[in-house]
Design brief:
30% of the residues lie in helices and 20% in strands. The chain is of the alpha+beta class. Strand 23, helix 14 and strand 24 form a beta-alpha-beta unit. The longest helix is centred in the C-terminal third of the chain and has 19 residues.
């Protein structure tokens, strides 16, 4: 097609330009004027203000701006500093210099300017500068608010793009004319195909053992999971004060019953009665419940812990996952209190699906996989990898990047994925631990790494070594394609060779991109046969010409049905292909895999192994406790050593713990 002009609207969250005292009150959810801040609240405000620009308000029209790097440990009325061979308090200085009386001397000062010789600014004389992007992770409420503002139906989105082209008047642009560039005011018309949805297989004891999804969706009505797990020893903890013990116990019984209805073996009786605790007692409570179950007559280790949370408390959730998965070696399933009060069958079914895979079961498999009809997967033992690297928020250079790799552990079904995670240098995109060697005083040179471990795990699970490798890689920009391919393909080769001389299964290496601005619209928004309920293009829509590379192997695939807003297709780049996939075969395999995502009965927007790798990397952030996050990593701006991530217990990493 040649050069194209890509127009899209980008959106982001901004910090509200409030007076700093109001901002602090908003962060804490309470008034800060009446009493001094506790240490914990001071740290919360310090973290929220870090790196923000503020302007002073006590000098009339002079609005100097400063960047905040900290908060004083002492309140303003205790702060003194040397000036003109004498020592003066901050309160006195502001009164004498500016005639300003500090009304909230119990609050700390902002630390601004030079870190070696900081300036003190009382909170009440500062206001947050307008137009600053919010660079930290948004919570659920903030995400919902942002989506409400930015979501546009496909027809509206297309109309906005057309208006922008008209408004910008490219046909009158003098620079375009000078270079002889002609810009059409029409959207590019392209050809697309819609791949059919695959048939799914459920257990034969259900009323429906086979299912054909309709427009990317289906449900669990009249179906049973294809391989149900067994849960004999479980317990529950209630961290919500608003949920009575009887209500919580009733909810857990309903959940256990739903698991049984869906085909799992689930003991109706918990190992010990429901235990209630406050969120700040989470670590002690988890260990107490685990040990209490062991001490029972004929006591055995817990397999599953059901946890009721008071709200979307990230810190509490993180503690639960870290303790259960790196210390106790048990699975946990968290449920919010709001779902306990109003029991919904669909919610219980979705939670049951998550429990099944966490405990080693399988929800559904592709019918073609069972009958061995998937090209270049069903003919020989094939392992499918997914890999991703997640980085800390901008400027948080004290945190390591987290790499995650998952790999299928069943063949020919390719539905169960074991996952491994590791911490690596700050903002390092190449996955460092795919393959590694080190010297051991007793054993000499030792080989290891995530690829090697997952290949061994596959052989243990299936009894066969993989004879084909398909590697889906997320989170790589176009400028890094070559570098990532060279480094990571080499690591895969070395991992294989370390297991057996001359063991070199053919590799297909695919990059998956979602961070692009290409939108696909139906030719006619009113044609119900070519759109889903949300007005988006149909799931399975694939484009591999005109807007794709003229010589390379790439395609756009919209594998999911839209829910709100305008669907964005995933862009797949096959950088290396020793398995000689035809374009149709790779597109069909990728689309079909999108129907095997275990957490819901919908096809998803990116191929599941990549989705799972992202979930595993996100989960591993919780393993790095606050102390480890405050350690300056080896490649950070402040130097120092990177603290090791706690290891996930063996029986945890064998299953889909990250779901």
């Amino acid at each position: 097609m040649g050069l194209s002009l890509n127009i899209d609207m980008s959106s982001t969250a901004f910090v509200e330009p409030l007076p700093v005292i109001d901002f602090a009150a908003q962060i804490l959810g309470k008034d800060v004027m009446s009493r001094p801040l506790s240490d914990a609240n001071r740290v919360r405000i310090k973290k929220a203000l870090h790196d923000l620009k503020v302007e002073i308000t006590h000098r009339g029209s002079l609005r100097r701006k400063y960047r905040v790097f900290g908060l004083t440990a002492q309140p303003t009325h205790e702060l003194i500093f040397p000036i003109d061979d004498e020592v003066k308090s901050v309160v006195e200085y502001f009164k004498e210099m500016y005639g300003f009386t500090i009304k909230q001397p119990h609050l700390p000062c902002l630390l601004v300017g030079n870190q070696k010789k900081p300036n003190y600014l009382p909170m009440e004389v500062c206001k947050i500068v307008e137009g600053q992007r919010y660079k930290k992770r948004l919570n659920e409420k903030q995400i919902t608010s942002l989506l409400k503002v930015t979501c546009q139906r496909p027809g509206d989105k297309e109309m906005d793009i057309r208006r922008t082209v008209h408004k910008n008047g490219y046909d009158q642009d003098p620079y375009a004319k000078e270079f002889g560039i002609n810009i059409s005011d029409k959207l590019t018309s392209i050809e697309a195909r819609v791949l059919p949805a695959p048939w799914l297989k459920y257990h034969d004891t259900g009323k429906e053992s086979e299912c054909l999804p309709r427009v990317g969706q289906w449900d669990m009505k009249n179906k049973k999971v294809v391989n149900g797990c067994t849960v004999n020893h479980w317990a529950s903890i209630n961290f919500s004060r608003s949920v009575q013990e009887s209500t919580a116990s009733g909810f857990c019984q309903e959940l256990a019953q739903t698991c049984k209805l869906l085909g799992m073996e689930f003991n109706s009786e918990p190992a010990i009665p429901m235990y209630s605790a406050r969120p700040e007692q989470a670590v002690q409570a988890l260990k107490h419940v685990y040990n209490a179950a062991l001490k029972k007559p004929k006591g055995k280790e817990l397999e599953l812990l059901l946890v009721i949370l008071p709200d979307n408390n990230g810190a509490l959730y993180g503690d639960i996952k870290r303790i259960c998965e790196t210390e106790l070696g048990i699975m946990s399933q968290c449920c919010l209190a709001k779902h306990v009060f109003k029991i919904c069958k669909r919610y219980l079914a979705n939670v049951s699906l998550k429990i099944n895979v966490k405990m080693g079961g399988r929800n559904t498999v592709l019918l073609d996989a069972v009958s061995r009809r998937i090209p270049l997967v069903s003919d020989v033992p094939t392992i499918i990898f997914g890999a991703d690297v997640t980085h800390p928020e901008t400027r948080e250079d004290t945190s390591p990047s987290i790499a995650a790799v998952v790999a299928s552990q069943d063949w020919p079904e390719v539905t169960k994925y074991a996952g491994l995670v590791c911490a690596q240098a700050y903002r390092q995109e190449l996955i460092q631990d795919l393959y590694k060697t080190w010297h051991d005083p007793q054993r000499g040179t030792v080989t290891g790494g995530m690829i090697r471990e997952l290949l061994i795990s596959f052989r243990k699970a299936t009894g066969q070594k993989p004879l084909r490798i398909i590697f889906y890689r997320d989170g790589v920009s176009a400028g890094q394609f070559h570098q990532v391919l060279l480094y990571e393909l080499d690591a895969i080769r070395k991992a294989c060779a370390s297991l057996e001389p001359n063991y070199q299964p053919p590799v297909t290496f695919v990059i998956v991109q979602k961070r692009h601005h290409t939108k696909l619209f139906a030719n006619n928004h009113n044609d119900k046969s070519s759109t889903d309920k949300s007005g988006n293009i149909l799931p399975g829509t694939v484009v591999d010409s005109k807007i794709c590379h003229p010589t390379q192997f790439d395609f756009y695939l919209c594998s999911h049905a839209g829910i709100q807003g305008t669907s964005k297709p995933a862009h797949y780049h096959v950088l290396w292909d020793e398995n000689n996939f035809m374009a149709d075969e790779m597109q069909t395999l990728t689309n079909n895999l999108c129907y095997t995502y275990v957490r819901c009965t919908r096809s998803v927007s990116v191929v599941p192994p990549v989705y799972y790798a992202h979930l595993a990397a996100f989960r591993a952030r919780f393993y790095m406790d606050q102390d480890s996050l405050s350690v300056k990593n080896a490649n950070g701006r402040n130097g120092g050593a990177m603290k090791t991530m706690p290891a996930v217990k063996e029986r945890v990493k064998r299953v889909m713990f990250y779901c």
